[in-house]
Amino acid sequence: MRIVLAEDQAMVRGALAALLGLEPDIEVLAAVGDGEAAWEAVQAHTPDLLLSDIEMPGLSGLDLAARIHEAKLDVKVVIVTTFARSGYLRRALDAGVRGYLLKDAPSEQLAESLRVVQRGGRAIDPQLALAAWEAEDPLTERERQVLRLAGEGLSSGDIASRLSLSQGTVRNYLSEAIGKLGVGNRIEASRLARQRGWL
């Protein structure tokens, strides 16, 4: 099994690469620290599997999964993360992710989960899978994009130019998101959506 590993924390990346390197049937082709480098490594090496964190500089693990899915690359994606958020899992599954594991799981489970995915199965943390069916994400993809940028501190005008929308349209998306989440403003909406894993 040939793997590209994407993890922005150097110590965790090194530990994962070392752990996987002990397995006789696993070869780590590249271990990189951000989403863009991971995308380049996937294209350069065409691995069997991408093992990726969710939150990284540049592209997130979910962005990478979506790119791989859209490009119809024969690369299975497994997310390994500290974020036990059901919203992330639902979006990961929508992006074609085959595995979703938590970093606090026992290390021996990781290699076995990768083998399950390599054989065509799914490896999803069971508690997270249960929670995912209970928490419905009310946001549209465009509302998510606008809220993500608002959470980064961009003004409505900046968001409009970044997404090629009018300022009025941006305000409408923000207003819809604020209303759906039942909060008072765009910052609270962004914070709540991020906590629930919807961003």
From TrEMBL:
On this chain, the residues bearing 4-aspartylphosphate are 53
Q: What name is this protein filed under?
A: Response regulator transcription factor
Q: Where is the Response regulatory domain?
A: 2-118
Looking up InterPro entries in the UniProt record yields: CheY-like_superfamily, Sig_transdc_resp-reg_C-effctor, Sig_transdc_resp-reg_receiver, Tscrpt_reg_LuxR_C, WalR-like, WH-like_DNA-bd_sf
Q: Report the domain of life of the source organism.
A: Bacteria
- What Gene3D superfamilies has UniProt attached to this entry? 3.40.50.2300, Winged helix-like DNA-binding domain superfamily/Winged helix DNA-binding domain
Q: Which UniProt keywords apply?
A: DNA-binding, Phosphoprotein
Q: Does the keyword Methyltransferase apply?
A: no
**Domain (HTH luxR-type) ranges:** 132-197
